[in-house]
Each structure stands twice: as structure tokens, then as C-alpha cells.
Amino acid sequence: MCYAGSCNPACGKCRPRRILEVACPACGEQNQITREEYLLVTRMPHEPNIIERKLLERGRVEPPRCSRCGAELLKAYQEKYPPLPCTKCNIICGFPCGQRVTPYDPATSRCPAKVPLALLDEE
Fold this sequence. Notes:
By secondary structure, this protein is α+β, with helices and mostly antiparallel strands. It has one domain (9-119). 20% of the residues lie in helices and 16% in strands. It is built from 3 helices and 5 strands. The protein has a 3-stranded antiparallel sheet, with no helix packed on it. It has a two-stranded antiparallel sheet with strand order 1-2. It is globular.
């Protein structure tokens, strides 16, 4: 179990990862963006946090580019971090975490970081 002060921002097991990493398909350079930048550039439906509001106040968020060769990386990020079913919240989540496999319970299904794209079909 990790604690808030020592949580690994690239982990994503107990809450959505804060840092996204991807290798550039053109040159192989490792690149990073934050969760907030990713959600803003992909325009996913979610409740914006204070960091996202501050990013928007400073200007338009640009699509991610490779720090070495300048190649567009949005497609690489979308392929590496696709939307997945979240049984905890009974939705398809656009930015899932490791808690997505937790069984659905209406009493504990609240997730402040969810990015709901659609409801899961009831079976």
C-alpha cells in the first residue's frame, strides 16, 4: 500500500496515474505528459480539477510532441492508454486505474477521477 506522500505518479494501481509515458514511434525517445494535459488535449468528458483550470487559464493546451524529433505523439498515448471497462463504477472509463476490476457496489462506487464515456451493459 502506498501513501499520498510517497505515491508513484506513474503507477495507476489505486488511482489514475498522474504521469503518462510513451516512446516516440519515430525516434524511440521517452516522453511524458500529465493526466491533466492528456484529458484536456483529448477532450474527454470529466470533472476538471484545479490544475486543469490553471492550464486553461495560461492558454490552449497543445497536442503532445516528441522532445527530441518533434513528432506528434497523441495517437501513441491513445494506443497505450485506451478506455477500458470499469466494473467499480459500472462505466467505460476513458482514463482507468487499477481499481477498475473492483466489483460494483452502489454504496462504494463513487470515483472522483472517473472519465465516463458510456455505461456498461447490465447483464
